Sequence to fold (284 residues):
Amino acid sequence: MLTGSASGIMASGGLAVEPRRHTILVVSDGTGTTAERVIRAALLQFPSAEPQIERRPEIRAPEQVRAVVQEARERGAMLVHTLVSPELRRFLYMEADSAQVIAVDLMGTVLTQLARYLQSVPQVRPGILYGDERYFRRVEALEYAIHHDDGQGLRDIDRAEIVLVGVSRTSKTPVSIYLAYRGFRVANLPVVLGIPLPEAIERVPPGRVVGLTVDAQRLAAIREARLKHYPPLGLEYANIDHIRQELRYSRELFAAHGWPVVDVTGRSVEETAREVLNLVGLSE
Fold:
């Protein structure tokens, strides 16, 4: 039996059990010095907090990113990164989202706004410049997708070139980020059983909206795996009968609005993205 105390948690038998210490992993393609200084400056506003700060320097490949996200998930840590490569920032965002890990990008927005203000492009690797209009469109699209993920940013959702709609775990976020990386402004909205979609969706021309669906058994397996790492979702989240009701409700919404539908079962993110582009009449 555990009992609370001012100094921590006391187990039966009088042995103190130390609560898990908060950990911040600093991810950098350099040394991580800059990010750590920023974090320590911010922590001055939290005088009672004493998180452990650990650097993960020289992160320059997707497999390294995946490993550090996995470490953060297992340790319940937060990630703060200063990766300058748009590709690695996108990859880290997708991996962290999938693993339910908090990740903060200290570099991306700064680079984007400096690029706009200076009318120049950042040298993200020695000797390589990303220097055409497509670069600026891509970084703007990535920012838009991040700020319009999972029903956020409804005020200007009509600026989206594509809106993806579907129940939880139908690949809305990965497909959104993939398309954003190719320069398309994408928003996505969750479908929740019995709850109408936000009125803001009515401002989006129907030809820009695509519904996503998936096989019920496959979705149940995906959700069961997620439930192991995030129990607060509740058992109903992965219940096959509840899932069938959700999918039926989403199909009814799609039909009522006349939106085309993509079944993501067995499809890669790339395949789903290509089909979405075909349905909305856009090309890369």
